[in-house]
Design brief:
With 178 residues, the protein is mainly β. Helix content is 2%, strand content 51%.
């Protein structure tokens, strides 16, 4: 006996972009980098997203960043991490982090860490769920500014988008021997 049933297959697709751009210290104009995401099937929409950031140097507590989807949806990733908590913010230099709606701590609450790089998984300043139902494929733009002088110029080495696209319906063939 053969039976076909509809099932949902969910796969995360990930792409890393390596702009290697310097974020000028104390300059609110900042820099914009872009990456064209092509890892999802045509027409698939976002059901979930995480953002990986690899930044070297600078002073993390003075960073502001946002991400823009191909359809123009904008989400603030960070806005002076930790400054609202202690006035100084994340005193660390550089980061290799993941921003996810399931992160245990908001990036906005990170403080201390002088002389170290920031690592781990955090929640972004605004919910990444705002990107849900956006097109997965297309040009994603990321903006960074270092809003305070001092600490040197950070460098955006890379950013990674890991997207959960809409499920693809598949036919499953189930063989049952009677």
């Amino acid at each position: 006996l053969l039976a076909a049933t509809g099932a949902q297959a969910v796969l995360n697709v990930s792409q890393t972009f390596s702009p290697g751009v310097t974020i000028p210290s104390g300059n609110p104009v900042g820099v914009m980098a872009a990456g064209t995401f092509t890892a999802a099937d045509a027409g698939e929409q976002v059901l979930g997203i995480t953002v990986g950031l690899n930044i070297s140097g600078g002073y993390n507590g003075s960073l502001y960043a946002y991400l823009v989807a191909p359809n123009g949806t904008l989400v603030t990733l960070m806005n002076l991490p930790g400054v609202s908590v202690d006035g100084f913010g994340a005193e660390s230099s550089g980061m290799n982090i993941t921003l996810s709606d399931t992160g245990g701590t908001s990036i906005q609450n990170v403080t201390g860490g002088y002389g170290t790089g920031l690592t781990g998984t955090y929640r972004a300043d605004q919910t990444l769920g705002t990107f849900n139902n956006s097109s997965a494929n297309g040009t994603w733009e990321i903006y960074f500014a270092d809003l305070r002088n001092g600490g040197g110029d950070p460098v955006l080495n890379s950013f990674t988008l890991t997207i959960v696209p809409e499920p693809v319906t598949q036919a499953l063939v189930i063989c049952l021997a009677l």
